[in-house]
Amino acid sequence: HTALFDQADVSKLFILSGAPIATKRFPDSLNDEQKKIKVFQRHGQVDPVLPFPNGEILRDHLKGLELSLEFHPFNGQHEIPLDVLNKFGSFLTS
């Protein structure tokens, strides 16, 4: 939330099993600088801690703000599998 809405100097944001919080405080739009933030989001499809539909809701909020978003669902729980780490590494170095 801080990276997107509190004018933080951020170029990339990664969300690992995230869920929307305080969506009523989400702005309707972002300025041009904020829209440059690249987002990497991953979420396990059978996550018992933060259910997958919460990740999809967050994804849809971020897409609605016109952010460059990589969404990586995977068949797993509340974990970080090796292939997600590899994709994350590529995202960081891009």
Task: Please describe the structure with a list of short key phrases separated by commas or semicolons.
single chain; 94 residues; alpha/beta; three-stranded parallel β-sheet; 3 helices; 3 strands
Describe the protein:
A three-stranded parallel sheet has the order 1-2-3, with helices on both faces. The two termini are 23 Å apart. It contains three helices and three strands. The protein has helices at 2-5, 52-64, 82-93; strands at residues 12-16, 38-44, 68-74.
What is the strand and helix layout of this fold?
Layout: H1 2-5, E1 12-16, E2 38-44, H2 52-64, E3 68-74, H3 82-93
Parallel strand pairs: 1-2, 2-3
**In total, how many beta strands?**
3
> What strand order characterises the main sheet?
1-2-3
**Which descriptor suits the 3D outline?**
globular
Helix content: 25-40%
Q: How much of the polypeptide forms β-strand, as a percent range?
A: 15-25%
Give a short summary of the structure.
With 94 residues, the chain is an alpha/beta fold.
